[in-house]
């Protein structure tokens, strides 16, 4: 009988008070003594732990542990409440290898990973790795109320000492037993989302086309082009027929070209969409050149990487999952900021958001801000109306988000900020580019060409043949008047346009 163990009990009881253990402690058994349990008090049993990482944690990279904490929660009889009865910290050596088993533990670790508990009661067991429990655990008196908080600073990317958790249940009905728990498999409870700017951003032309052109220009352009073409066709048809009310006039310039006028108007009305598309292109190109020169666009489209540049993400108010419980459910703690530092940006422009898994109404990012050299205001920000994205990741997963900084460009003034553009199009060039040879044959016939020119250039001899709308114009300078967004070099930066990003979200596997 090893009677020399008993004098240590008083010292161990004192040690228990220092480690938040409220149950009786006993010196761990030496491996050679595990069948000799005479040191156990009646109604108690020994639990012997080994610690490893789970398959998902091991798959991506080896488990890295800097600190390890052990919690025991005991059930209050006939209730669902579990109160904390133990909390101890287990010393982990630098570069500690895992799995941590009895064969490779230090004696001090063996002491910490062997415990004496009471029979006939239920326990919740918790192992936490890499958590500063003094500062980032709150309300842990009960199992159901304990919360793990995200750190104030980002996790060190070079160390990958991410939060890890294991929870399990434990009970034993037969006293003086040794229960071996080889199923303690730590799992990372944070998830990583790598964010990067796309290598193939939406062209500025398409961002305008899909944005404010469709919303603020398209219907006006369609209606206006159709109106001007129809008005022109009606006027030259009237001129060819002999004037208003059918009154013949010898000087009407198209009086002898009624067939040609029919052909010309037919071609124009059949190909109105070609004219609309050509005018649309000229409108978008004009806006494209203005926006491309603007400061706001140049800033938005710049490279993300710069030496010592850091990134912050801002979550929609109240959605940041900054806490998680032992059951792996995420929460937003209201007294914590909605902004999170993500750390420095890699040379390829990537930064990482590391946090707890989201869920319903959690982890909605509304903006990414970039700060240079500890300046207190952001150098630039990626944001925009209805451009939020939600990080809906699971625990211990790696995701990637590709940002298209200016996927759509929106005009913020609506019709109140429009102006009446007095533009023109070259019908001859449009028809030529479209390969409509019949048009060229018509307008180049000398007699008909002279009649068309006379129609546009009223010399006072022909009464009312053209009117003010087409006076002084031509087929190469055909008028189009339309209401368009008022965007110029002078006002483009005043908030009347908004650059809206898009996000492509992919799951990449385990961390």
Short summary:
With 511 residues, the chain is α+β, with helices and mostly antiparallel strands. The protein has helices at 9-18, 55-60, 107-112, 133-136, 204-241, 258-270, 272-293, 295-300, 427-433, 437-443, 446-456; strands spanning 44-53, 68-75, 82-90, 114-118, 123-129, 137-138, 147-149, 164-170, 178-188, 190-197, 309-315, 323-324, 330-331, 339-344, 351-356, 364-372, 380-382, 389-390, 397-411, 418-425, 478-485, 497-510.
Number of strands: 22
**What form results from the Cα inertia axes?**
rod-shaped
Strand content: 25-35%
The end-to-end span amounts to 51 Å
The largest sheet has its strands arranged as 3-2-5-8-9-1-4
How many H/I helices?
Answer: 11
Report the uncertain regions.
1-19, 22-27, 245-249
> Major sheet: size, sense and barrel closure?
7 strands, mixed
Cα radius of gyration in angstroms = 39 Å
Described by its quaternary structure, the protein is single chain
Mean pLDDT: 86
Indicate the percent of residues in helices: 25-40%
Structure classification:
alpha+beta
Provide tags for this entry.
511 residues, seven-stranded mixed β-sheet, disordered N terminus, rod-shaped, five-stranded antiparallel β-sheet, alpha+beta
Describe the structure.
The chain is α+β, with helices and mostly antiparallel strands. Helix content is 25%, strand content 30%. The chain is built from 11 helices and 22 strands. A 7-stranded mixed sheet has the order 3-2-5-8-9-1-4. Strands 11, 14, 16, 17 and 18 form a 5-stranded antiparallel sheet that branches. A 4-stranded antiparallel sheet has the order 6-7-12-13. Helix 5 (204-241) runs antiparallel to helix 6 and helix 5 runs antiparallel to helix 7 (272-293). The chain is rod-shaped, with a radius of gyration of 39 Å.
């Amino acid at each position: 009988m090893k009677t020399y163990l008993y004098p240590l009990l008083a010292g161990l009881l004192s040690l228990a008070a220092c480690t938040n253990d409220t149950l009786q402690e006993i010196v761990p058994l030496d491996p050679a003594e595990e069948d000799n349990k005479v040191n156990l008090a009646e109604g108690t049993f020994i639990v012997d732990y080994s610690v490893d990482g789970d398959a998902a944690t091991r798959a991506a990279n080896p488990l890295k542990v800097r600190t390890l904490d052990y919690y025991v929660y005991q059930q209050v009889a006939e209730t669902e409440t579990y109160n904390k009865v133990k909390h101890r910290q287990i010393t982990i050596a630098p570069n500690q290898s895992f799995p941590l088993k009895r064969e490779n533990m230090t004696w001090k670790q063996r002491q910490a990973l062997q415990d004496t508990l009471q029979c006939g009661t239920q326990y919740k067991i918790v192992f936490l790795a890499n958590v500063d429990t003094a500062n980032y655990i709150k309300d842990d008196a009960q199992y159901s109320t304990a919360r793990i908080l995200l750190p104030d600073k980002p996790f060190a990317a070079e160390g990958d000492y991410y939060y890890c958790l294991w929870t399990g249940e434990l009970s034993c009905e037969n006293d003086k037993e040794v229960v071996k728990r080889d199923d303690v498999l730590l799992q990372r409870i944070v998830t990583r989302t790598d964010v990067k700017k796309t290598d193939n951003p939406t062209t500025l032309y398409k961002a305008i086309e899909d944005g404010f052109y469709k919303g603020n220009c398209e219907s006006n352009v369609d209606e206006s082009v159709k109106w001007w073409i129809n008005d022109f066709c009606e006027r030259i048809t009237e001129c060819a027929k002999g004037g208003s009310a059918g009154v013949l006039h010898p000087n009407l310039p198209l009086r002898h070209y009624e067939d040609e006028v029919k052909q010309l108007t037919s071609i124009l009305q059949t190909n109105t969409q070609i004219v609309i598309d050509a005018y649309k292109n000229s409108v978008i190109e004009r806006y494209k050149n203005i926006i491309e020169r603007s400061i706001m666009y140049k800033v938005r489209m710049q490279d993300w990487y710069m030496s010592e540049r850091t990134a912050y993400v801002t979550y929609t108010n109240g959605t940041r999952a900054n806490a998680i419980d032992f059951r792996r459910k995420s929460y937003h703690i209201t007294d914590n900021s909605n902004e999170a530092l993500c750390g420095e940006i890699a040379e390829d422009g990537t930064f990482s958001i590391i946090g707890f898994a989201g869920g319903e109404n959690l982890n909605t990012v509304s903006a990414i801000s970039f700060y240079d050299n500890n300046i207190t205001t952001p150098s630039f920000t990626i944001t925009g109306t209805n451009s939020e994205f939600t990080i809906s990741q699971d625990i211990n997963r790696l995701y990637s988000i590709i940002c298209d900084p200016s996927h759509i460009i929106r005009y913020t003034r609506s019709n109140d900020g429009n102006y009446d553009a007095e533009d023109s199009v070259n019908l001859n060039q449009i028809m030529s580019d479209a390969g409509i040879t019949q048009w060229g044959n018509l307008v180049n016939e000398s007699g008909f060409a002279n009649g068309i020119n006379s129609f546009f250039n009223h010399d006072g001899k022909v009464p009312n043949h053209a009117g003010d709308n087409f006076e002084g114009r031509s087929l190469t300078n055909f008028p189009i008047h339309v209401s368009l967004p008022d965007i110029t070099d002078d006002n483009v930066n005043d908030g009347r346009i908004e650059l809206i990003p898009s996000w492509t979200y992919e799951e990449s596997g385990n961390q």
